[in-house]
Amino acid sequence: MSGEYGLSFKRRHLLGIEGLQPFEIADLLDRADGYVEQSRRTDKKLSTLRGLTQVNLFFENSTRTRTSFELAGKRLGADVVNMSVQGSSIKKGETLIDTAMTLNAMHPDVLVVRHQDSGAVELLARHVRCAVINAGDGSHEHPTQALLDALTIRRRKGRIEGLTVAICGDVLHSRVARSNLHLLLTMGARVRLVGPPTLLPASMRAFGADLFFDMRKGLEGVDIVMMLRLQLERMQGSYVPSTREYFSLFGLTRDKLAHAKPDALIMHPGPMNRGVEIDGVVADDIDRSAILDQVEMGVAVRMACLDILTEPLREAA
Ligand code: CP
After folding, report:
1. Residue 135 and residue 102: Cα distance in Å, rounded?
2. Which residue, 115, 269, 278, 113, is CA-closest to 179?
3. Ligand 1 within 6 A of 102 CB?
4. List of residues 6+ apart from 258 with CB closer than 8 A
5. d(Cα 144, Cα 263) in Å, to the nearest integer?
6. How far does the chain reach from its first CA to its final CA, in angstroms?
7. What is the pLDDT, as a whole number, of residue 232?
8. Which of 56, 58, 62, 115 gets mutated to test ligand 1 (max ligand atoms within 8 A of its CB)?
9. Is 180 in the pocket of ligand 1 (CB under 6 A)?
10. What is the pLDDT of residues 169-205, one digit of tens each?
């Protein structure tokens, strides 16, 4: 039993936010809340995961997610292995499934996987016995990012339910947008998606979000402004006339931010492109920007995910 719902997260993997129940999200957030203080202590190390092995397998670049998963595992006492794709047999043509089955034979307890293809992490999870955490797959989902965003919002605003959140920019290519959309709607927030028509598919309305192609209108009266990176590496062809014009229409500036509530929080998952989707002055505004809080919450959320997913193993031992 856990949290206000009296129920706890019991799944084998964390592959996405879609389909999670409010009590499951609340359980993960409640657990993560406890780990925020733990991570601020001088002695950060616990022995919760002692004897367990965590393998981080990142097929795509990462600073925040990979480092925070490594710190999270180590702070919980796990043996953490970072597998470098660059130096692995994947470079010799080994398939994803063969890589999964090879790692499985070494008896890891948790696999943390980032992959450039949507659905690849779920496919891999079908071929291993251990818990799998999706650290971002293509433009599909990035569940721990949405959880850390939710924890940031909950701690800064005291709630998620009833807030209006504008997710702005390159929604089309963003796994962060999809995971956040599912989480925020599940937890009772209102979601607006804001961006140019080329990067904001009308099909997103089906999820229950309101779409805005004018940023000033989209930000009118919102509690949270969540900016997205322009994902040039996922674009084949031209989606914006120029980054300069994109900044002028959809970059977050003080002028556009003035349309949001006076205490609206500014968020960005990182990495940021200053002067493309966000003005550096706004990103660095210590009164409004929660961007570094998000990074801090990332470690706590990943500790909570590792803790919850390995609980059945520890109980069985
Ligand atoms: N937000 C995020 O996933 O950042 P990284 O790509 O640095 O992990």
Report:
1. 20
2. 269
3. no
4. none
5. 26
6. 20
7. 76
8. 62
9. no
10. 999 999 999 999 999 999 999 999 999 999 999 888 9
